[in-house]
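Tungstate-binding protein TupA structure dump, as promised
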Amino acid sequence: MKLLSWLLTAVGCLVAWTVHAQPLVVASTTSTEQSGLFGRLLPRFRQATGIEVKVVALGTGQAIDMARRGDADVLFVHDQAAEERFVAEGWGVQRLEVMYNDFMLVGPKTDPAGVRGRDIVEALRKVAAADAPFVSRGDRSGTHAAELRFWAQAGRPEPGWSGYRPCGCGMGAALNMAAATAAYVLTDRGTWLNFKNRADLAVLVEGDPRLFNPYGVIRVNPERHPHVKTAAAQAFVDWITGPMGQAAIASYRIGGEAAFFPSARR
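structure tokens r here:
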């Protein structure tokens, strides 16, 4: 009986240790990872809370699917309409603003389609009219969702011509593809600043208010998925929208330029 009691106690301790040791899972976007931002944030969060974080970087649509299945504890993405729908459907608990940056259209420095300027919609019309090569993320990411909005505004709700090339890939891979083929591509500023293989690419369109790119954080609803790490998830949300997290975002620079701007409202 004593041996059985000892074994049950040992198993209970092992289970408790295993649960405690499991990291908080954050489903996020490729832009937050490929910009290097998580390399700045996570060590500071761990130091402040002792909580380990595992980031799964996907396109925003895939990240939302992952959170909807209960395979993540926190969602940190950049497609506000989809995020608000996720909360309205009961999968998430309150969307909070975290930060923003902007999208840009990059392409060959020679700009064969003549798109250079501030108007993203007119620029895309010119790309299509010139049958110029254009790389699309094509992966249901926040960037892809924004691109499709701009195409719809340009009168091309279903873009497709010989030069239109969906890659079904992350932002870094799409930029590599554009660099290799002298193509146009929509990118977020953070990933572009951290992108080293630019070849002949240059920023051609920026500054259009429609290119505004907000990021939100959402805790997965434990009423839908009771196994989620509610306390750790709340700690992450509180930290990243609080003074320490917002200061870490504000201080992150790539080549001396801010990649993201904190925007949490407490």
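Residues 2-21 form the longest helix (20 residues).
lmk if u need the other ones
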